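Fold this: holo-[acyl-carrier-protein] synthase
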Amino acid sequence: MEEEEKQSSGARRRWLVDAARWRPSPAQFQAAASLLPPHERTAITRFVREDDRKRALVSRLLQYSLVHHVLGIPLHQIRINRTLEGKPYLQNKNGTFPGFNFNTSHQGNYVGIASEPLCLVGLDIACISKPQGETALEFIKNFASHLTYHEWNCIVSSGSPDEMLAEFYRYWCLKEAFVKATGVGVGFGLQRLEFHHTNWTDIFLSIDGEEVRKWRFWLFKIDEMYMASIARGHPEDAIDSFKRTLSDVVVQEEELQGALDIPEEAFTIWTVEQLLRLHD
C-alpha cells in the first residue's frame, strides 16, 4: 500500500514558471517551439501579442515536459488534445495511472500546471491588479452577477480597497479552478458556486445551496501580486466531453477519500531553461 501511495504521489505535480524572466531572442523562441508538435506550434502563432505567444509556448512546454517526466512517454509519442470546451487532456493511454489528468493556467508573469493520478484537478492563477479608471468597488461590481449574496458581503466588508480586491480574487480564483477541473469552462454559471472558509483554510463549496463533499480546495500566495488555487474532486463530476477522455476505471470511495485528503504541497519552481533541458 505504501508503495502504491509513493507511486501515486509521483504523478501529483505542481509546477510553476516565472515566464517574465525568460527573454528569448527570435532564434531561441523558434528553437524552443521546435520541440513541440506542428499543431502546437501553429496554435502559438495565432497569438498576436509577443507576451501571449511566450506564455502559450511555456504552457505547452510545461504540459509535454510534465507528461514525459511523470509517465516516461517519449516526447515524440506524447499526444495532447483539447475538448470542445478547450480543456487539454492526454490522448495516450497508460496503465500506471489510468486516471491521470492535468490542468494549466497562466496570468501575467506566471505559467503553471498541476496533475493528479486519480482526482480531477483544476488550477487557476490570479493577479491582484489594481483597476484603471475606476475604484476597486466599481471594478468588483462588474462581476457581481457571478457572486453569491454571501460572497459579495464578505468582499465588501473585508476592509480597505486593496483588501476588497484581494478577497474578490480569492473567490474568483477558486471558482475558476473548479470549472477548469470539471472541464465545463465558461458555460457554467459561476453564481451557482458559493465558497465558505475559515480564514481561507478548510475551504468548502456549495452548489445551488448544497455542500459538495467530494471536492477539496486550496489557496497559495505566490508573491505580493499573484495567487494560485487548486481544486481536487471526484472524476464523476467531469463534463461529458472530458469524462470521455478518462479511462473507464471504477473509483473506490476509500481510495478517492484518501486522495482528496492528501495535503497540498508548495509549487516546484522551474525556469524555462530547465524545462528545455528535460527535452534533451
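The CA atoms of residues 79 and 213 lie 33 Å apart. The mean pLDDT is 91.
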